[in-house]
Specification:
Number of strands: 11
Radius of gyration: 24 Å
Strand order of the largest sheet: 3-2-1-4-9-6-10
Largest sheet: 7 strands, mixed
Distance between the termini: 94 Å
Strand content: 15-25%
Helix content: 40-55%
C-alpha cells in the first residue's frame, strides 16, 4: 500500500511540474494605450516581429476616444499571443501598466509605450542574460516623430523603464506596482522602489540594439513643438557627428591600406 501511495505521489509531482513548464511563458509585454492610433501599427508590429517568439502581448486600452481600441481588437484576432484589456473610464498609464502586471504569465515583464518601437532583436538580446538576474537593463535612444534622427542619452540616473525587463516573481514578492496617484514620473519612482529591494541587475552592453523612445506633443511628457524641434535638431547633429566619425574611420583604413601597399612595394624593390 505504501509503495502504491509513493508511486501516485511521484506521478502527481511529475505532472504538476510538466504542466507548469508547459504553461510558463518567458516574457509578458505590457503596452498601455491612450489615443495613439497613428502610431499603434508601428509599435505593435515591432513587437510581433521580434526574433524571440515565446511571449504574450498585453494591450491595455485606457478608455481611448479615437479608434485605438478597434486597432487592438483587430490585432488580437490575428495573433493568439495578444490579450486586450479595456477600461471604460480613463485611469492613467500607471493603472494600465498595473493591470497588465496583474494578469501577466511571463517569467519576465517588459513595457513598451504605444507610440514607441523596438529593434527586432531587442528582447532576445535582454533575455539571453536573464538566467541569474531580476532586472536586465538594455539601451534606448530618443527621437521625435518629426524625423528618423535619434540621440543616445547619457543619464546620470537610469529612470527609464522601457529598455528593461523585470522578473515577475520579484515584483510580486515585494508587491511592486506603479503609483496610480501619479500622472507623470511614476516610471522613475517604480525603478527606484524596485532597486530598494536590491534586485540582481545585469546591464547590457551597447550592441546597437535599441528601444526607440519617440517624443511627441500630447504625450505624457507633454513636449511642446519648440522642444520637439530642438530635440530633433540635437538628434540630427548626433547623426551627422556619427557619419563624420564613420567617414574618418574609412579614410584612416584606406590610408593604412595604401601605406601597407607602399611598404610592400618598397620591400620588393629592395629585394
Amino acid at each position: 500500500m505504501k509503495l502504491i501511495i509513493n508511486v501516485f505521489f511521484y506521478i502527481y509531482i511529475y505532472f504538476e511540474i510538466f504542466f507548469k513548464n508547459i504553461n510558463t511563458l518567458a516574457l509578458s509585454i505590457v503596452v498601455p494605450v491612450f489615443n495613439t492610433s497613428p502610431y499603434l501599427n508601428r509599435s505593435i508590429n515591432s513587437i510581433l516581429d521580434q526574433t524571440f517568439k515565446d511571449f504574450e502581448l498585453i494591450l491595455v486600452d485606457d478608455a481611448s476616444t479615437d479608434n485605438s481600441l478597434e486597432i487592438l481588437v483587430n490585432y488580437s484576432k490575428i495573433d493568439n499571443r495578444i490579450k486586450t484589456i479595456h477600461f471604460e473610464i480613463n485611469k492613467g498609464v500607471s493603472a494600465a501598466r498595473n493591470a497588465g502586471i496583474d494578469i501577466a504569465k511571463g517569467e519576465f515583464i517588459g513595457f513598451v509605450d504605444s507610440d514607441d518601437f523596438i529593434d527586432k532583436r531587442f528582447y532576445e538580446n535582454l533575455l539571453k542574460n536573464s538566467k541569474d538576474y531580476d532586472v536586465i537593463e538594455g539601451n534606448f535612444i530618443a527621437g521625435t516623430n518629426i524625423s528618423e534622427s535619434y540621440k543616445k542619452l547619457n543619464l546620470r540616473f537610469h529612470c527609464s523603464i522601457f529598455d528593461s525587463i523585470w522578473r515577475r516573481d520579484f515584483l510580486n514578492k515585494y508587491n511592486l506596482r506603479y503609483d496610480e496617484s501619479m500622472r507623470n514620473g511614476s516610471d522613475k519612482k517604480f525603478r527606484m522602489e524596485v532597486y530598494q529591494y536590491k534586485p540582481r541587475i545585469f546591464v547590457s552592453p551597447d550592441e546597437g540594439i535599441y528601444y526607440y523612445y519617440k517624443r511627441r506633443v500630447g504625450s505624457l511628457s507633454n513636449f511642446s513643438e519648440i522642444q520637439l524641434k530642438y530635440l530633433n535638431k540635437e538628434a540630427f547633429k548626433e547623426i551627422r557627428k556619427q557619419k563624420r566619425n564613420k567617414n574618418k574611420h574609412k579614410k584612416l583604413i584606406k590610408r593604412e591600406k595604401l601605406k601597407k601597399k607602399k611598404n610592400l612595394k618598397n620591400e620588393e624593390n629592395n629585394n
